[in-house]
Design brief:
Blueprint lengths: L5 E3 L2 E3 L7 E2 H7 L8 H6 L1 H13 L5 E4 L5 E4 L1 H11 L1 H12 L10 E6 L6 E5 L7
Antiparallel strand pairs: 1-2, 3-5, 4-5, 6-7
Helix pairs in contact: 4-5
Length: 134
């Protein structure tokens, strides 16, 4: 998973372990209209040609469909741009600007889950690797 979070139109766009972006999240960010469904986009001849070109130039898989609760269609950045251009010029600009925005980094060290004291019922967060002076 990437160390950064992409947000488009107030929708967090998930990434898979290879850094591909969830096209279903982008569909939601675009308004979720049926005519802009991810399957419609991927079935277009122009999209198929772009995927073939990406496959010829990349070692990674440009489109990965995952089933299940945390599934979806994950695509490389170039296909995110192509999808956004297909939707509308306004959505395309939102996506470009979202990529251009500095994105917050993930927390630099692991955080342990909150613990609850049985006497005070207060919740505290602790880092497992905080060092003095950090």
């Amino acid at each position: 998973m990437s160390n950064t979070q992409l947000t488009v139109a107030d929708i967090a766009v998930r990434q898979d372990s290879e850094g591909r972006f969830n096209l279903n999240d982008l569909h939601k960010a675009a308004g979720g209209e049926r005519r802009f469904d991810t399957r419609e986009f991927l079935d277009r001849e122009q999209t198929k040609e772009l995927v073939a070109e990406l496959e010829s130039q990349m070692t990674e898989i440009p489109v990965n469909k995952k089933r299940g609760r945390y599934g979806g269609t994950f695509v490389v950045k170039e296909l995110v741009y192509a999808y956004a251009m297909w939707i509308s010029p306004a959505f395309n600009l939102k996506v470009i600007r979202a990529f251009d925005q500095p994105r917050p980094k993930a927390w630099p060290w692991p955080i342990t889950p909150p613990t609850t004291s049985s006497t005070t019922r207060s919740t505290t967060w602790r880092s497992s690797s905080i060092r003095p002076g950090s």
